[in-house]
Amino acid sequence: MTAVSILLVDDHPVVREGYRRLLERQVGFRVSAEAEDAAAAYRAYQAERPDVVVMDLSLPGPGGLEAIRHIRQWDRTARLLVFTMHASAAFALKAFEAGACGYITKSSAPHELVRAIATVARGGRALSEDIAREIASERLGNERSLVEDLGPRETEILRLVASGWTTEQIATSLNLSTKTVQNYHYQIKSKIGARTDAHLVWLATAAGLVAPDNAA
């Protein structure tokens, strides 16, 4: 039986090493490549065509949502599993909207990650128990997230703006024109009801898109 090939995407080498050791102890798993940011993940995916991508959301520069969207544009059959610290229903739903097949938090037990990779490799969908509870709670309580009306790219641009990136930096990073980024910026402010850029940053921070110490 051919082993499931895995691409690990996380910006911390020590963390990736820990994942690699865990996964390669499992029968039928093989880590074929690693990447530390969205651009490297895209290149590694094209070179290796792994069966499953295990993707963190918090990456330097464009985050995991953008990496998922980019890989799925290139290969609509790509199987991507988010493995992240963000225990947020909003993040999980945006990840699925971008093309992820599963969402597991880093507070999950190791066997949950192993089981999720196997499920995604078979073509299924996977959720860690804490995220499943968050989504159920939000839906049952009729709560609306700040980013619910934003697309994955809008969510990523909001995160970068709130992190202090300039229009020019965002445009270069996402291969967009500055005019397009400015249009996105205006649309985002309108959709979430931000009166000023400072208010925009405050709303993004309150929604958990950026940590308070990383906000602009």
Automatic annotation (TrEMBL):
GO terms for biological process: phosphorelay signal transduction system; regulation of DNA-templated transcription. Keywords: DNA-binding, Phosphoprotein. GO terms for molecular function: DNA binding. SUPFAM superfamilies: CheY-like. It comes from the Bacteria. It holds the Pfam family GerE. InterPro entries: CheY-like_superfamily, NreC/VraR/RcsB-like_REC, Sig_transdc_resp-reg_receiver, Tscrpt_reg_LuxR_C, WalR-like, WH-like_DNA-bd_sf. This is DNA-binding response regulator.
